[in-house]
Request: fold
Amino acid sequence: MKALLIFASLASVGLLTACGEKPRDVSFTRSLSGDDFAGQKYYFGWGAAGQGDPSMMHNEVRYDVLHTHDIFTNRVGGTYIGTTETGTQVNRSLIQGHWSRLGGQMTRDDMFVQYSSGHGSQSGLGVGVSYDEIRDNALNYAANEVVIFTMACYSGGLVNSFNNARSRWSDWGNQGRTLFVMSSSTVYEESSTGPGTDPDQPGSPYGSAGSAFGHALWKSLIGYADGFMDGVKDGYVSLDEIAEYTKSKTQAIGGHTPQITGVYNERLVMNRVPPRAFLDSLDVSTEGLSDEELAASIQELDAAMRLPN
Reply:
């Protein structure tokens, strides 16, 4: 199973000071923006399981997308304009149509977030777009910051694709631009299904906890990553905290190893920790099991319905 996520963002310190105490280092933080932000913010998420997959997997890809959508289209993540596509109707043509539309609107001041979830191989997504096409589309966008999270079997192929085109983005830092690419596993590893449901949300759809990587990413975004690097909780989640927490939890519960490449500032603040009331307003909670309990649950699920290569 896999999920692709692209973040691109430009922001000012203005919102950080307006929302409360500033994080430990705001000298180069742009993903949260204040009233003086001149650009636009776009979110595009898609998820597609296979026609013959059990309902749990269809729920996993749907909730992988909705979890990130819920963060980034609300004020805690920057109030992006959201586009989501989930279900078996998602295909190459549909994705490329949205890419083209967004590319025609995007400027250097804009932010772009993309997340996708579904099957994958060493060369691309099961919906029909290759890693090279994902790379080329992202690098062709005018957005000032591009951050890509990929959840997929063998999704390290996307990291390899970007590394093969390093000359196209290696100077982004000198231009004041950001590129961050993170895959859920190496090009040789499958990526795992998730824990199904959380124990403190009885009655929620089976699969609503998301995939193993999607579950870990969601946990990081709702605040578990805050302070993960240095023990200091400041109410904001930075890129390094997201990366390291998601990597650690994915390894602990899914058994596969996320990969990273790009040129970026690790202290880039991606979102505020949402208040409890915000989380309670969503249709699924992600509190509950320990990493050891999650890993055992996932291993049982994977034994029964390991995703196809």
